[in-house]
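Need residues for this backbone.
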């Protein structure tokens, strides 16, 4: 089984920064895309940023220029550096990874348990 373990959430004032980290643990063959999603109260889960195994990135318009996603393929980790945080960034942030557990297995979608990010005004 594969687990995604997140860390780095917390409370920060508007304009501040936080860094989220996620590590994939368990037996796996490869990870293609990794990313971060968020869900605010009463809203649907939305993509924040994603990165492919070759480093191609994609960002939600609302975070472009403020957030940076990066990954370490050797360590199976993905980070999200969040700068210039705004109250509207408040949400539970979830790590996501598309994992192939073995060479003949189909890729599967895995989620972390989520980490709370709260930005005060």
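Answer:
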């Amino acid at each position: 089984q594969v687990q995604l373990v997140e860390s780095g959430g917390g409370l920060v004032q508007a304009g501040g920064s936080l860094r989220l980290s996620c590590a994939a643990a368990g037996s796996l063959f490869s990870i293609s895309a990794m990313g971060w999603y968020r869900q605010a109260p009463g809203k649907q889960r939305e993509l924040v940023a994603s990165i492919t195994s070759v480093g191609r990135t994609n960002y939600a318009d609302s975070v472009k220029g403020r957030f940076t996603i990066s990954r370490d393929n050797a360590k199976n980790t993905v980070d999200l550096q969040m700068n210039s945080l705004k109250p509207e960034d408040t949400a539970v942030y979830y790590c996501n990874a598309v994992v192939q557990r073995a060479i003949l297995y189909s890729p599967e979608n895995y989620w972390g348990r989520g980490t709370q990010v709260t930005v005060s005004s």
